[in-house]
Design brief:
The protein is mainly α and 78 residues long. It contains three helices and no strands. The protein starts with 14 loop residues before the first helix and ends with a helix. 0% of the residues are buried.
């Protein structure tokens, strides 16, 4: 069985950070890019995605990672 490795698979941007750090034009560009990705997924018949995000400064962070690791390792052993 291969060792579980965390992967950098997603881009997550906190909305408060978008509001605080991006200009109006940058916000519009970001919204446009997100819209384009969503439309492209739809054209390919892929469903809209929903996510749960746990920040590394939350007390649940390590627990969530260990839960994911346990699931991945369990699936790999089957």
């Amino acid at each position: 069985m291969s060792e579980f490795k965390k992967e950098d698979r997603y881009i997550v941007i906190k909305r408060a950070d978008v509001d605080r750090y991006l200009s109006g034009m940058e916000k519009s560009q970001l919204i446009g890019l997100c819209h384009e990705v969503a439309q492209s997924r739809e054209r390919e018949g892929k469903p809209n995605k929903c996510f749960v995000v746990v920040a590394d400064d939350w007390p649940e962070y390590d627990l969530v990672w260990s839960m994911i690791e346990a699931r991945v390792n369990d699936e790999a052993s089957q």
